[in-house]
Amino acid sequence: MGAVIALDTLFNGGRVWKGRPAAPPASVHPTGLAALDAVLPSGGWPESALSEILMATEGVGELQLVLPTLARLSAAGERIVLVAPPYTPYAHAWHNAGVDLRQLAVIQAEERDALWAAEQCLRSGSCGAVLCWPRKADDRALRRLQVAAETGQTLAFAWRALGEAVNASPAALRLAIEARPAQVRVLKCRGGLAHPAPIALAGH
Prior knowledge:
The chain is an alpha/beta fold. It has helices spanning 2-12, 34-37, 67-75, 91-96, 111-124, 139-152; strands at residues 50-55, 80-83, 104-107, 129-132, 155-161, 173-178, 183-189, 199-200. Helix 5 packs parallel to helix 6 (139-152). Keywords: DNA damage.
């Protein structure tokens, strides 16, 4: 009992530092989907961090979530780099989404080189956003991308298979996109609890 009283005295007297989770800084990069921004701790994409977007299959509108951000970045003169995209970007669609194609760069790389290329682009600090589609990436490889994003103060986006959701990830944000119905789920978000309810993508 005496030990409990002694501890209370220390805590209440301010002699022991009590850590409190720091709120993440407000993002200057809203996703463009207001309902999603409303449930993210920073109000948008986490700054200087890796965001992982998981999908059951490609071609379900997975780029819709990032195009508004990429349009803003490119309009501000920031370089957007796509590392080994699974399909050749359709320039007309990107242009219609407001992306300045002069700021868009595509790096073709084999799987073994793609993660390295993405990491170098992130570390350089010369890009506004780096997008990649790693098919084989363990926790260590993803952690390198996260650290590189922090180092270069760059937004990093990685699209991966939905089956990867069962594996832990160092990404600051993990989203899952479902096709039918078109919706997005927050699986993990640094600085807050994941919002359990799906968010509709219809009309986005």
